[in-house]
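Hey, can you fold this one?
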Amino acid sequence: LQCPDIPTVWRQMEEIHAQGLAKSIGVSNFDANQLAILLASAKVKPAANQILLHPYVYARQLPILEYAAKHKIVIEAYSALIPITSLPGGPVDKPVNAIAGRLGVSGDQVLLAWTKAKGAVVVTTSSKKERLLGYLNAGALVLTEDDIAAIDAAGAKGAPLSPVKRIVRRLAGIALVAFAVGYALGLRY
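Sure. Predicted structure:
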């Protein structure tokens, strides 16, 4: 399996752009180092970098956000709603629910507004008209600096573990204790 380097692939993307086959070209899931490699040889700067972005990964993604802002590359954020759709019950729930209650909006609208406050364009979808309307209304929602800081702080605590991961961690801990006890008793495995 061949895997061309970033500049080689980007030159091919630039050719597509030059031929008028694409209005703009971008990348997905590039980190800051990969963006730097691309920009070092690019004739056409990527219009966007689509990345995973929600409060639980914000600190990890911050270098990408900063690099993109410095180089005027739009960040498109996917999976912004993961804290309430796939990882409910985590630390982000408390500030999101409090803000939603105070503003009379839904939690998903708060997370979309948080994402927008981070300078990203939200990429999301739904087949339900009412949900799509809520997403559109989130565009007008403005969070305070305190709201954003509360969500950031909660996200920094980390996502809740799935039930399977909790069980695996617990079993690993038990196995480690059993090994240590056995070792202390002179048992060799």
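The radius of gyration is 22 Å. Let me know if you want another pass with a different chain boundary.
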